[in-house]
Amino acid sequence: MCEARYQVEMTEASPPPWQFDAADAAARGLAVRPRRLLVLHNPVAGWRRIERFRETVAQLERHGCPVAVHATTGPGDAEAIAAGAEAADVLVVAGGDGTINEALNGLSRRPSGMLPLGVIPLGTANVLAEELGVPTDPADVARAIAHGRIVTAHLGQAHFDGASRNFTLMAGAGIDAQAVARVRTPVKRRFGKGAYVLAGLEAAAAYRYPTLRVQADGTWYDCAQVVVCKGHFYAGRYVLAPDVRPWLPELHVVLFERFGSVNAARYAFGMQFDRLAKMPDVRVVKATTVTIDGPTGDPIQGDGDLLGALPVKIDLLPEAARFVIGDPP
Ligand SMILES: Nc1ncnc2c1ncn2[C@@H]1O[C@H](COP(=O)(O)OP(=O)(O)OP(=O)(O)O)[C@@H](O)[C@H]1O
Predict the structure, then answer these.
(1) Of 72, 78, 109, 165, which sits with the fewest C-beta atoms within 10 Å of its C-beta?
(2) At what angle do helices 138-147 and 50-62 cross, to 10 degrees?
(3) Structural domain includes residue 231
């Protein structure tokens, strides 16, 4: 295991391993059949952005891609469809990180292996889209999905008592999971990211800050809050673990070592104003296996939604995932 404090400057992590570049193949005279797309559209996540969604689908068809759209009907639907997805080259999620999380959990159960995943960002925070450098303009999104490069990525996997769930961006225990557990869907639909701020304030007032015991590749740490990161962005474009990227086969574990609501507020301000790197009580360690122990049944958040409850073991999903992206992020 290797330990790293924050870098003062943001460093460029390892570049992604490109698997396939349609533009490059075309330049070399190779025939490239248009990608067949199965689009999972979360109509609840995207209700404000329905025009953007329709325009993206129209643009995809202009690129010659056969597009099948399926509107999700409720929680769990994206996962079930992804698990049985056939006759498609790419599964596209038109929604937010919660729908993407469900789709990737379904794809990992697909008998013939994972399909590459593309994103039309319609959610509240769209952290994975930021992480992958997915554009927002419909024409650019469509071009990226139709012709963009495919990058291999490694998902995190959280093992609870009798169940396992994948995550793409992060899994956390402590105050952030407490906040996620308090987010109410109608408030999120109305106020977007403001719902997390409200839930965070509620959680900060009620939470008792018990000690979390974290084991990262055999070394134990005590902390008030821990976020196990697979991507460097958090809650939008805030940076928690500057050097991790989805394509790196490692977890970057961010440990917040001081307890109580005053320190929770310090960390929130530190994140807001990009000062975490300067805080001596915020530690980042790299690992491939992490366990988190604390009050049994306390929530674990993953990709901004509830993932499960303590205690948890976290490692990497053995099968690699693939993401369709546009230009290098
Ligand atoms: N038709 C539906 N009605 C209600 N909920 C749905 C429906 N389809 C999917 N969902 C659920 O909505 C949840 C939230 O959706 P999603 O994550 O896509 O948007 P978001 O929460 O606005 O975005 P983000 O996660 O990026 O902040 C998903 O976890 C999914 O289970």
Answers:
(1) 109
(2) 40
(3) yes
